[in-house]
Amino acid sequence: MSLVYEARNLEQRYDGRTALARVSLEIERGEAVALTGPNGCGKSTLLRLLAFIERPFAGELIYHGDRTNPRREATLLLQDPYLLRASVFFNVTLGLRLRHCGKDLERIYDSCMRAVGFDDPGSFAARGPNALSGGERQRVALAARLALNPRVLLMDEPTSNVDAASARAIADAVSRYRREGLTVVCSTHDPALINALQAREIRLGRRWDEI
Amino acid sequence: MEYLINGWFGALALLADMDDATLSAIYATLLSTVYAMTAAFSLGLLPGFILGYYNFPGKRALRLVSDTLLAFPTVLIGLIVYAFITARGPLGDYELLFTLPGMAIGQAVLALPIVVSWTAQAVENLDPRCRETLLTLGANARQTALLTLWECRFAVGMVCVTAFGRVITEVGVAMMLGGNIRYSTRTMTTAIALETSKGDFSQGIALGLVLLLMAFMVNLALAFLRRRGARA
Amino acid sequence: MKVLSRPALLGLAAATLALSPLSAGAETLMMATTTSTQDSGLLEYLEPIFRKDTGMELKWVAVGTGQALKLGENCNADVLLVHAPAAEKAYVAAGHGIDRREVMYNDFVVVGPKNDPAKIAGKSTAEALKGIMTAKAGFVSRGDQSGTHKAEQKLWKDAGVNPEKDPKYFSAGQGMIATLNMAAEKKAYALTDRGTWITFAGQQGDKNPLTIIVEGDKALFNQYSVMTVNPARCPKVKKDLAKKFEDWWVSPATQKVIADYKLQGKQLFFPNAAGSK
Predict the structure, then answer these.
(1) ipTM score here?
(2) What pLDDT sits at residue A88?
(3) How far apart are the C-alpha atoms of B211 and B213, rounded to whole Å?
(4) What percent of chain C clears pLDDT 90, i.e. is strictly above it?
(5) pLDDT tens digits along B46-75
(6) pLDDT range class, residue B6, cuts 50, 70, 90
(7) Pairwise CB contact (< 8 Å): A128 & B232
(8) Is the model's pLDDT at C123 over the cut of 80?
(9) Does B190 touch chain C if contact means CB atoms closer than 8 Å?
(10) Which residues sit opposite A33 in a β-bridge?
């Protein structure tokens, strides 16, 4: 089995407060992992470390892949995601343009939006983020990640704040990509999602306060 | 009361006429304001963005300086710039005093702290998830900075409109550095000051109405940007 | 306010009245005048003498003659001290003012750059003004309808030149010192009253780029008058006090005091009230 992530004694602090305490784990390529555990145990923090948008305070995190720019291979869907003040089309294709892949944007937009359950992607293309419901925003944000064709998809509570239909569409979309080899790590308490992804559960304990 | 009522009627007649003096005051006002805004934005946008976006030692001190300059008395700006551009000052050879560009320098100094401080504020007020989102989509440092600025465009537009409103209604700097010269550096505000001192209320009221109209349009632009910023 | 009892309130009111400098009994006269009388220091010199002689308080606003006349017209002043004889006569004829009395004169001078680019030194005022325009040397005008501005406009008219649209004719719309500053900056000529000129030259010291080019011409004399705002139009005008005020100005003692006033060793105002010589 080839590993994607190896974490040893990973620790994170914000302003001296411990947010994640000494976590060690290994994640294999193509695997689905569900991070569970009580609130405040550091699930979101761990996901941000795995997405390389933060550096750990201590410990070691090894990513097996393009280490010079892992953020171009591992992408994170934030809890309550943010969409830029621009059209849905702009948001979904933004990551590709940041990589200077300006070709086939319409086709990729169309297929990713369909993958997350929009039957008529064209009618959403010009809308602004404030014209979307919470579930639609979550799915648009997911489409923007899928458009990148990532090797690792990280998600923070992707189904906790959305309607049932959106939650189902998200679980369907992610499990389909997973069958094609996508590595998925998500924090969730949603049994339906864990089940759909056939995810291995990693339970984080309550962090030790102020070591 | 009689003179006030006559003043109003006279003002309306003058506006219907749009004589040379009124038109040239409007023209001088707009031209110097555009000069000043261009200068203030080219000099202030980047420092403002840096102050709001990056964390570095001394950042808070710089913000404090810029915020303090927001309350800088305009006559003091006039005095300092005057000292620089007067014939005996260090920039005296350029003969800027009592010209439109000279006046625009003072107005740019007036607008600069507004641009710097409020741009910094706009960037700071931006949802922190914006930066994280850009990072998770694989943006590098330069792309993240540029897109963050782009994301603030409505707020920066409001900064622009606010600074414009401040400059266009200002009288002290315009009077001290422009000199209120007819057909040249006489702006609407200095003209109003002059007409009042001459006791010509009609002309003053006429110019005041034009100025009010401009302030109204500026506020309209502000309201529009605020709505756009909230919706999009 | 409920905290204060009624006697306490009365006491407070009484204390406020006692502290006010305008408490009942003080006779205060409001005068509208021109900047030249204030900027030359004459008013501050005369005010204590006036108080001692008449027991009245004199308050004044110093503005352009145009606005000073307007202030009277709008009943914002009791008396006027101004210097625009033609405008004053029209003012009296229109019923805005009464009892106009000439009290003193000073004179104007034409100042310009020391090298005199238009070569007008020693000429008559009319010739000098023509010379400035033909040489395109630049002239800064008050442009504020003040007495000085009106005098300047008359001088241009007498010279047969209309400078209004000339690009080298700068209409400043500001006070005398500001106008002189602008002339210094623009290396241009200007017309000024001698009092303000002496003050300006004193401020500038040796570095003054301007100097007197034309002076002593009869056309440059500048007559000052006092007037009372017409009480028939403005009932609040204190006409008895105003009468005392005017009598004081033309009295031989006051006329001598005016002649004695010197700025940096130079007499500024020449008393010429009728019958006072």
Answers:
(1) 0.90
(2) 95
(3) 5
(4) 57
(5) 999 999 999 999 999 999 999 999 999 999
(6) confident
(7) yes
(8) yes
(9) yes
(10) A185, A200
Q: Are residues C114 and C90 in the same domain?
A: no
Average pLDDT of C13-35? 61
Work out how many domains chain C is built from and give that number: 2
β-strand A32-36 against C262-263: which pairing, if any? unpaired
Domain assignment of residue B64, given as a range:
2-231
**Tell me, what's the pLDDT at C20?**
41
**Closest chain A residue to the Cα of B231, Cα to Cα:** A130
Residues 115 through 154 of chain B touching chain C, CB cutoff 8 Å:
none
Identify whether A11 is part of a domain.
yes
Q: What is the pLDDT of residues B168-208, one digit of tens each?
A: 999 999 999 998 888 889 999 999 988 877 767 788 888 88
Residues C36-50: tens digit of each pLDDT: 888 788 999 999 999
Q: Which residue segment(s) compose the domain that A129 sits in?
A: 3-203
Q: What is the CATH number of the domain that holds B63?
A: 1.10.3720.10
C133 lies in some domain: yes
The tally of domains found in chain A comes to 1
Which sign, positive or negative, has the C-alpha torsion B127, B132, B137, B140? positive
Q: Percent of chain A beyond pLDDT 70?
A: 97
**Strands A200-203 and A32-36: what pairing?**
parallel
C207/B contact by beta carbon, under 8 A? yes
Strand, coil or helix: B67: helix
Q: A185 in contact with B at a CB cutoff of 8 Å?
A: no
CB contact (8 A) between residue B199 and residue C70: yes
Helix runs in A75-208, H state only: 88-98, 105-115, 121-124, 134-146, 164-179, 191-197
Query: Given a cut of 80, is residue C1 above it in pLDDT?
Result: no
Same domain, C206 and C255: no
pLDDT score of B38? 96
Instruction: Tell which of B171, B182, B188, B203 to mutate to test the C interface (max C CBs under 10 Å).
Output: B182
Distance from CA of B149 to the nearest CA of C (A): 43
Residues C141 and C246 in one domain: no
Structural domains in chain B (count):
1
Asked whether residue C146 is domain-assigned, the answer is: yes
Q: Write the residue in B134, B138, B147 that is nearest to A72 by C-beta.
A: B138
Q: Answer yes or no: do C176 and C215 share one domain.
A: yes
Q: CA neighbours within 13 Å on the CB side: how many for B182?
A: 25
CB contact under 8 A, B139 and A145: no
Does some domain include residue C9? no
Domain hosting residue C193, numbered range = 107-220
Q: Do C215 and C85 fall into the same domain?
A: no
**CATH assignment at residue A169:** 3.40.50.300
- A52 phi and psi, to 5 degrees? 60, 30
Of A88, A96, A3, the C-alpha closest to A50 is A3
Model's pTM, two decimal places? Answer: 0.77
Q: C216 and C118, same structural domain?
A: yes
Pairing of strands C189-193, C97-113: antiparallel
* Contact C247/B at CB under 8 A: no
Asked if residue C3 is part of any domain, the answer here is: no
Instruction: Based on the fold, state whether residues C168 and C41 are members of the same structural domain.
Output: no
Across chain B, mean pLDDT equals 89
Q: How far is CA A19 from CA A11, B55, B146, in A?
A: 8, 22, 30
Q: Do C145 and B198 touch (CB under 8 A)?
A: yes
Per residue in C163-221, pLDDT (tens digit) is 988 899 999 988 888 899 999 999 999 999 888 898 889 888 888 999 999 998 888 99
What is the domain-level CATH number for residue C123? 3.40.190.10
Output the pLDDT for position A210: 39
Does one domain contain both C206 and C112?
Answer: yes
Report DSSP state, residue A128: -
